[in-house]
């Protein structure tokens, strides 16, 4: 952010509780309900962690996202921040155990029940025939059987011992 007046930079950093590089540097100014700090500059609000990253990484492409290694939305420590895109953000979120999206029948777009998926997995019928029976595409049946969809059921079935006869 070339050309930012020194007094603006000083004002920004005065609202950050800085410590050593291992610590989170908390934003003490206004925050969104998600915990992200907001800094008002040139007539609009900027997320504080993005502003901190821009101040310390002048080469940063401002169309990219700024992610936290510490998972603390109010942290402005440049050592805890890294640039990425939307995909990086989603992968980082899942790697850290956040963003638990609904699975199976709880997914808003689910067309099958868990019992139906278990029947599909166990069925000797081909994908085209099963697709007609269950009202989905053959590709969907194939994705279920290969573990790309409804993986949590396929994994659970693989872990369960066979039923005694």
What this model shows, in words?
The structure is a single chain. This protein is an alpha+beta fold and 165 residues long. The chain has 2 domains: 6-95, Homing Intron 3 (I-Ppo) Encoded Endonuclease, Chain A; 104-159. Helix content is 38%, strand content 12%. It has 7 helices and 6 strands; from the N terminus they run H-E-E-E-E-H-E-E-H-H-H-H-H. The chain has helices at residues 6-14, 48-56, 86-95, 114-122, 127-134, 138-146, 151-159; strands at 16-17, 26-27, 38-41, 44-47, 65-68, 81-84. The strands form 3 sheets. It has a two-stranded antiparallel sheet. The protein has a two-stranded antiparallel sheet with strand order 3-4. Strands 5-6 form a two-stranded antiparallel ribbon. A hairpin with a 2-residue loop joins strand 3 and strand 4 (44-47). The longest helix is centred in the middle third of the chain and has 10 residues, at 86-95. The chain is elongated and about 70 Å long. The protein starts with 5 loop residues before the first helix and ends in a 6-residue tail after the last helix. The mean pLDDT is 88.
């Amino acid at each position: 952010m070339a050309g930012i007046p020194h007094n603006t930079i000083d004002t920004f950093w005065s609202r950050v509780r800085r410590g050593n590089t291992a610590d989170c540097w908390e934003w003490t100014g206004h925050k969104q309900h998600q915990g992200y700090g907001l800094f008002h500059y040139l007539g609009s609000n900027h997320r504080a962690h993005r502003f901190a990253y821009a101040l310390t990484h002048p080469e940063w492409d401002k169309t990219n996202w700024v992610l936290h290694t510490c998972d603390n939305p109010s942290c402005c420590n440049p050592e805890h921040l890294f640039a990425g895109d939307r995909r990086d953000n989603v992968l980082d979120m899942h790697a850290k155990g956040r963003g638990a999206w609904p699975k199976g029948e709880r997914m808003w777009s689910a067309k099958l029940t868990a019992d139906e998926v278990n029947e599909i997995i166990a069925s000797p019928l081909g994908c085209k025939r099963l697709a007609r029976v269950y009202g989905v595409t053959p590709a969907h049946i194939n994705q279920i059987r290969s573990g790309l969809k409804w993986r949590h059921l396929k994994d659970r079935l693989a872990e369960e011992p066979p039923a005694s006869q």
